[in-house]
Amino acid sequence: MRAPGAALLAGLALAACQAEERPVVEVFRPEYRGVETRLLEGDLVEFRVAMAGARDGQDVLDYAECAAAQYALIRGFGFARQVRTNVSEEGGVWRADAIYTVSPAVPRGLRTIDAEVAVENCRERGIPTV
After folding, report:
1. Which of 34, 93, 94, 109 is 20 to 30 Å apart from 25, CA to CA?
2. Cα–Cα distance between 66 and 62 in angstroms, integer?
3. Contact between residue 82 and residue 46 where contact means Cβ atoms under 8 Å apart
4. In contact, 74 and 25? CB cutoff 8 Å
5. In a domain, 14, yes or no
6. For 62-111, how does the pLDDT look when each residue is reduced to its tens digit (9 = 90+)?
C-alpha cells in the first residue's frame, strides 16, 4: 500500500513533465533594429519596427508604442491611439506592424497614449523612439 502523499507526488511529477517548455531569456539585451514610419491617410500612421533579443511580443509592442509617441510629439500632437498591431517572430527577430492615430486632444478609445508621458517612460526604460 502506498502512502497517501505518494499519489499526489506522482501526479505533480507527471504534470511537470507535460508542461510546455519555453526558452527563458535570463539577461534582457534588446537590439533595436529601427523604425519605418509611413503616413497612411489623415491622422493614421503605420510603424514597422524590428528587434532582436526580445523576451516576448510585448517588448516589440512597447518599441512600436514608443515610436508612435515620439512621432506624435514631432508632428505637434499630444496623443496617439493604437488601432491595430500585428506581431511576428522569425529566427529570433521580432517585428511589429502597428497603426496608430495621432491627435492634438485625447482621442476616443481604450488604448490612448499621452505622448509626453510615454516618451519619458521610454527613455527611462532605454527604449529608443523615432
Report:
1. 34
2. 6
3. no
4. no
5. no
6. 999 999 999 999 999 999 999 999 999 999 999 999 999 999 999 888 88
